[in-house]
Structures are given as structure tokens and as C-alpha cells.
Amino acid sequence: MDSSNKASKENNKENESPKPNLIMESLKSDYFLQKLYDIMPKKKKLEIVKYNKKIQNRLNLSTKDYREYSETFTPIEIEIIPKKGGSGKFININKKDKLYYHIYFNDDREEIKNKYDLKKKNNVIKIKIIIDYKVKSFKKLFFECGCIESINFKRFYRNNITDMSKMFSECSLLKELNLTNFNTNNVTNMDSMFSGCSNDLKRKIKSEYKNIKDEAY
Fold first, then answer.
1. In sequence order, which residues have a C-beta less than 8 Å from that of residue 94 and are 6 or more positions away?
2. What is the phi/psi pair of residue 74, to 5°?
3. pTM of the entire predicted model
4. What DSSP string describes 180-193?
């Protein structure tokens, strides 16, 4: 092999962009890593921003498209406040998805292990739920959860949720529902999302959130 061909191959190798490691990308969005990021000094955060810019350039994505790409791996954070004296479930979790839900009572650091025993308990003031990026459907997530008074989606930038049918159906005591960060860009099914909820809540949702389809009510 002559030296010119060898040099050409080496140049091509240098110019090749390495493929993104999706596992590492998802790890970066882990809830605990996010908390670590929050307390990082400004200099370290700037390094992470520069790193993300390199990934964006490597993928040849616009800023908007890269944001959507990144958000796909972002965990969702929900805060639930139960009604005093109410009874019923807190949440419904599909068997196949139970590993991807992390649930904590009353700011406890210890995760609730038994995801199928989430009925009303004494002394539960609030519940925090972290949902990993692998969950793609919220069908019947809070269906017939009759003890919930307030649900707040504190972080919800994911764009891979496609089904929200009956998500809050029959939540008869639900009064407050914060959907400010709610991403419905790729949701194809909102059927009966709020059926069985109070008329006051439905009116409030209709007036505040224009991205909710009519079929939801």
C-alpha cells in the first residue's frame, strides 16, 4: 500500500463521526444524575452543555430536533396529593412496566417496592413518582383512583407517549391538575381521558390547555 492511500484512509477515519451511545444518553437523563447536575458548579454545567453541543453536531440535528431527541430519554416526575379521608388506589401500573416506575411516599428516600399495593394508606401526605423513558403508554394510569385530590406533572418533556386514553377517568375527587409541562405532541389516543371527572375540572382543563382534544372529555 503506497503512502498516499494510507494517509487518505487515516484522514477518512479521523473525519468519521462516532455513533452516539444511546445507553449513555439515557443514563445522562437518570433522575439521580439530574439531581447531581442541579448541584454542580457553573463551570461543570458549562462543560456538559459543550458536550451536548458536540453530540448535536455529531448527529447533524438542529437545536429543536436535538432537544426533542434528548427529551425522549427524560424521566417524568409527578407529585400526587391524596384527599384526606378518601379511599382507593394511587396509580395503576402495567405489569410489564413496573420496573420503570419509582414511587416514594412523603419525601422518603426509600422506593416503594410493592408496586401492586398502592391503595390508600394512613399518614400519606404526598407521593412522588419518577417514570423512566421506556414507558410509552399512560392508558388508565390514574383510572378509578378515587382518593387523589391533586396531580402535578412537575417534569414532563418526553415526546414518546402515544396513548392517554382513560388516563384520569373516574378520578371523582380530583380538583387540581397541573398540566403545564404536559407533552402531547405524539399522543394519538386521548379517548375518555377525563370521563367521570367533575365538570369543574373539565371546564378548567378546557380553558387552560388547548392541546387536549375534544375526545378526552
1. 137
2. -85, 130
3. 0.67
4. TT---TT--B-TTT
The Cα 87–Cα 173 span in angstroms is 10
Who wins on pLDDT, 24 or 122?
Answer: 122
The rounded Cα 186 to chain-centroid distance in angstroms is 13
The C-alpha cell 479521523 sits at 14
Q: Are 144 and 88 in contact (CB under 8 A)?
A: yes
CA 118, distance to chain mean position in Å, is 20
CA distances from 145 to 63, 91, 191, 197, 215 (A): 39, 6, 18, 11, 21
Report helix, strand and coil shares of the chain as percent, to nearest 5. 35, 15, 50
**What pLDDT is attached to residue 74?**
75
pLDDT band of residue 79 (cuts 50, 70, 90) is very high
17 pLDDT higher than 90: no
Q: What is the mean pLDDT of the chain?
A: 79
Pairing of strands 127-131, 176-178: unpaired
Q: How far apart are CA 6 and CA 19, in angstroms?
A: 23
Q: Kindly report, residue by residue over 95-145, the tens digit of the pLDDT.
A: 889 989 999 999 888 898 888 778 877 788 999 999 988 898 999 999 999
Dmax over Cα atoms in the chain, in whole Å? 83
Single-letter code of the amino acid located at 143: F
Sort 117 into a burial class: Cβ within 10 Å, 0-12 / 13-18 / 19+.
Answer: exposed
Contact 137, 166 (CB under 8 A): no
